[in-house]
Amino acid sequence: MDFTNSLLLWYLENQRDLPWRQTRDPYRIWLSEIMLQQTRVAQATPYFFRFLEAFPTVTDMANAPEEAILKQWQGLGYYSRARNMHFTAQQIVAEYQGNFPNSYKKLLQLKGVGEYTAAAIASIAFNEPVAVVDGNVYRVLSRFFGIETDITSSKAKKEFSELANTLLDKNRPEQFNQALMEFGAIHCTPKNPKCESCVFQSGCIALRDKKTTELPVKLKKTKVTNRFFHYLVFEDPEGKTLLEKRTEKGIWHNLYQYPLLETTESKPYEEILRKIEIEHAEKSISSIRVLENDAVLHKLSHQNLYIRFYKISLNKSLTSGIKVESLENYPFPIVIYNFIKSNYL
């Protein structure tokens, strides 16, 4: 069976009409690829248009403050992608006069641009014959060829990359790469792949051996940590509140939040109240109440965050207080922004 031709024929008939497929502009392709890492197409699409409106060129993005980038990114998650993207834009302007490097090897020198993103930009924007390897590619190739190599192992990337490059249509690398990713995204899906209508039925080893649920092999499991966040929503007599910036490394770096009290385990309500009263006695607290009986569960890739908000009314003014109407200007983690939107905006 001719895998490459069958794949390209399938793509011509089944490809989705996506905005970043209507251009060879490396800026737009790069922007879409960064957004689509760990994000569904439906969620990423409005952000793609929003970013282009706010930052029409890579130079516009480079010249914007980081907070403006983070604000536009708010809700997409994995905020290090946005920070790296901003740094990359500045690097392109400083080192390449605002023009994207036009080869795979040079693209790899950009911060936040790994092998997959570099291959996507090089092949789609510059027609360079280099294959992409992402989760979709692992899945499609492991199933069709019956490859049982653990995709989290050190040798997997080399093995799958070599295979993808041997299959690559050197004359149409852009079409081949997008076809392979598209096939994995909408047809050979992680769960319930459409095997009954698959163009590869006669050649797929996973289908033949009834191993579609077992491939690709992924042995390493992500350890999930539980964290308990108690956000302190102070409000003084003028209606002002307090915010703080998360400057430590880790989740939500450089985003804003309410003052945080974090515990390593779930604590009784009374214990949290005493801790707030002791640590913030100088603020002249008049009342404290928890705003929801149950904690909000916010799931990240490797962390479960149990979040509560506490309304803390004060008897005296906050010297560094922030007016509620100005909260809209700050970049927040989406769980905090949703709280603000529901209660204040």
Automatic annotation (TrEMBL):
Superkingdom of source: Bacteria
Keyword DNA damage tagged: yes
Top EC class of this enzyme: hydrolase
GO molecular function, one term: 8-oxo-7,8-dihydroguanine DNA N-glycosylase activity
Keywords carried by this UniProt record: 4Fe-4S, DNA damage, DNA repair, Glycosidase, Hydrolase, Iron, Iron-sulfur, Metal-binding
InterPro entries: A/G_AdeGlyc_MutY, DNA_glycosylase, Endonuclease3_FeS-loop_motif, Endouclease-III_FeS-bd_BS, HhH-GPD_domain, HhH_base_excis_C, HhH_motif, MIG/MutY
One BP annotation, GO: mismatch repair
Reactions this protein catalyses: Hydrolyzes free adenine bases from 7,8-dihydro-8-oxoguanine:adenine mismatched double-stranded DNA, leaving an apurinic site
Cofactor note: Binds 1 [4Fe-4S] cluster.
Cofactor names: [4Fe-4S] cluster
EC number: 3.2.2.31
HhH-GPD domain mapped to chain residues: 35-186
A Pfam short name: HHH
Function text: Adenine glycosylase active on G-A mispairs. MutY also corrects error-prone DNA synthesis past GO lesions which are due to the oxidatively damaged form of guanine: 7,8-dihydro-8-oxoguanine (8-oxo-dGTP).
Family label: Belongs to the Nth/MutY family.
Protein name according to UniProt: Adenine DNA glycosylase
Organism the protein comes from: Flavobacterium stagni
Gene it is expressed from: mutY
